[in-house]
Amino acid sequence: MTEKLRVVIAEDHKTVRAGLRMLIDAEPDMEIVGEAGDGREAIEITTNLKPDVVVMDVSMPVVNGLIASAKLSRIMPEIKILTLTRHTDEAYLQELFQAGVFGYVLKQSSSAELIRAIRTVAAGDKYLDPAMTEKVFVGFRQNKSKLRGEIKGQNLTSRESETLRLIALGYSNREIAEKFDLSVKTIEAHKANAQHKLNISSRQEIISFAILQGWLQDN
To answer: What would the 3-class secondary structure string for the chain be?
Structure first.
């Protein structure tokens, strides 16, 4: 009898986690051996259980999925990490693959896509959701070049920098406002001021800028 693929789920929403467990456990060649509700817990559980595949959400509290993936890839390179996210920004995609993940699946894709992805990365192959095309890589390179040429000499305040960093990590304006005990309008002003200084206008460019600053790799 063939051994089942041992899978750990790292997802902070309990309802989503339960759905993933039902979906994966229903497959005859897979089993869930552990669950984590944040990135730090994902690192601990994966280190202890040594699964074949970790299905990792990107936007999680305490330690986000990008940082958790990078750490696990360094200390346990044999374990295959599959990113599960709603983000279609090419900047996330590029950075996650650089962090050592083996696959990238969108939450809005079909359940069959996720199962296919788990089997693919478990076999040691890279997997990219079909909804993500080659143009995302082209777009990232263009944004990276643009930002490198424009950010020199631009000085952000500490609050503007932190606001952009949190936006890049997936926090909403309201969540950032609560974190700083400020109004949403104040956070929106910090964001607008920073974007004006950097001459950027989109969330995608904010993420690219954050990557260039190394903000998404800080713990």
So the answer is: CCCCEEEEEECCCHHHHHHHHHHHHCCCCEEEEEEECCHHHHHHHHHHHCCCEEEEECCCCCCCHHHHHHHHHHHCCCCEEEEEECCCCHHHHHHHHHHCCCEEEECCCCHHHHHHHHHHHHCCCCEECCCCCCHHHHHHHHHHHHHHHHCCCCCCCHHHHHHHHHHHCCCCHHHHHHHHCCCHHHHHHHHHHHHHHHCCCCHHHHHHHHHHHCHHHCC
* pTM > 0.90: no
CA distance 10 to 55: 6
Question: 90-124, pLDDT tens digit by residue?
Answer: 667 777 887 889 988 988 889 999 999 999 999 98
User: Which amino acid, 181?
Assistant: D
d(CA 219, CA 214): 11
